[in-house]
Amino acid sequence: MAIYLNNNVGVKLATAAAPTVPSIDISAFVTNAVINQIVDELEVTAMGDSAHKFVKGLESGTLVVSLLNDTATSNVLQTLNAAFGTTVAVKMVQAKVPAVSATNPLYTFDILVNNLTPINGAVGDIGSQELSFTLNSAVTVATTGTF
Q: Phi-psi region for residue 7, left (φ > 0), alpha (ψ -120 to 50) or beta?
């Protein structure tokens, strides 16, 4: 059984200026990340079948990510504020080291930056946000490439 410590997930976002090229590495600000992949079920049951039958339909999904807020140039808040209301590309790996491989695949997809929580917390809290983005493309999984 391959068990791993989930503390080195890599996350890169594109900028609003270059929405198709993930270039801002926000991994150091991510405290939790979840990709949810979902496909529609299309029923293809025919006369004479003894059970329902389904095939894959369109794919959808979400990226749920918890982030530590950072206002510095090219970090979390500036990147997300600039991308708000647009679609940007995302690259993710389970572990930034070692390289992309069969056991450390590269996930790429687009998200619609449709919600932000730039100010969140009480006195003495760390500024953070937990966001759920709608995937705006299918998830591509590759065993080669670069993060």
A: alpha
How far CA 113 is from CA of 2, 42, 49, 59, 109, in Å, comes to: 34, 29, 44, 18, 13
pLDDT in tens, the chain (147 residues): 567 667 889 999 998 888 888 889 999 999 999 999 999 999 999 999 999 999 999 999 999 999 999 988 788 899 999 999 999 999 999 998 889 999 999 999 999 999 999 898 899 999 999 999 999 999 999 999 999
Q: What is the DSSP letter of 28?
A: G
The Cα 67–Cα 12 span in angstroms is 13
